[in-house]
């Protein structure tokens, strides 16, 4: 097997970034940074190199990741890949990442959602969880372990808190298109109107951050915890070499209220505290 070098891996990464990302200053700065730092290296690529390349990219796109697979044999991609579907039985087995639902003695409803599976399978679990909060005094949405997932599921969950009428959340800007995301129209009187709190931290990532950011932008929730990592791009899995799989940005999010996003800055909490104290802090605020 031909040994891949750092320079060849970065060259392919830069090529994909140039092809997929919208043509703007951020893309150009990212390409220049990676090319300047790593493009001339003839050293065999290692796990440490993959980590260094990703970290160099993070000031421009926090989503960039390079995964080193020492036993990999598949050739580098020439066509952009897509995320493989998750088996329905896997999604049902984990209840679509709805990891905990409770009604506390103080009248607070708490739901923990650790990821965002496709809404076609996630909807029954999300609706069952939020449906239990009718009559609760307040709602707490725990996203401290939410690593992201489907934007349609972001919109569905946000709809439970933003009202019965459809509300625009965001535009996703790709190189050649824009897709808008809205909350769904709900049956009259079914959305939750109680005070709501969202818990965030370093484990809140990507579309998990999107959910917190959009709710905060609409002034619907109080965000409690610590600042999130700041990953607002959409990515595709692309193999750069037999031993290197990358997550390559191809689009970014623009919030409908702020006209911006959380890339690089993260979702900044309204009330800052260590993530482990976020629930107690939210309850104290309530």
TrEMBL record:
SUPFAM superfamilies: ClpP/crotonase. It comes from the Bacteria. Residues 71-274 form the Tail specific protease domain. Pfam families: Peptidase_S41. InterPro entries: ClpP/crotonase-like_dom_sf, Tail-specific_protease. This is Tail specific protease domain-containing protein. It comes from Asanoa iriomotensis.
